[in-house]
């Protein structure tokens, strides 16, 4: 079950064997957690981070707003989520690349294209 307010979303999550718990999700906390996960990917490339990255990307899609900037890429550009197109967009000089969640998660975990500055 989800409820919304101006600061983000409150999600009720069922935890097996435990009571239902409330998790508050807003843009700043998701972006912070996302950047922390990306940094952890670079420090420990042998650990499996794909699922964690994918879940964070999926949660970011639920944050209200027209466009949500995620991070800047090296050497120049940015990755955003466009709610109108319902896709992630990599904005590089002279081009925009529309990309699926799974493709972006792959690129981040494999530390290939679209790596943050």
The coarse overall form would be globular
Number of helices: 3
Distance between the termini: 36 Å
- Give the strand order, joined by hyphens, for the main sheet: 4-5-6-7
**Measured on Cα atoms, how large is the radius of gyration?**
15 Å
Low-confidence stretches: 1-15, 18-24
Give helix % range: 25-40%
Number of strands: 7
Mean pLDDT: 75
Give an overview of the whole structure.
The chain is of the alpha+beta class and 117 residues long. The protein is 32% helix and 32% strand. It has helices at 27-43, 50-60, 101-109, and strands at 2-5, 8-13, 21-25, 67-72, 78-82, 87-92, 95-99. It has a four-stranded antiparallel beta sheet. A three-stranded antiparallel beta sheet has the order 1-2-3. Strand 1 (2-5) and strand 2 (8-13) form a beta hairpin. Helix 1 runs antiparallel to helix 2 and helix 2 crosses helix 3.
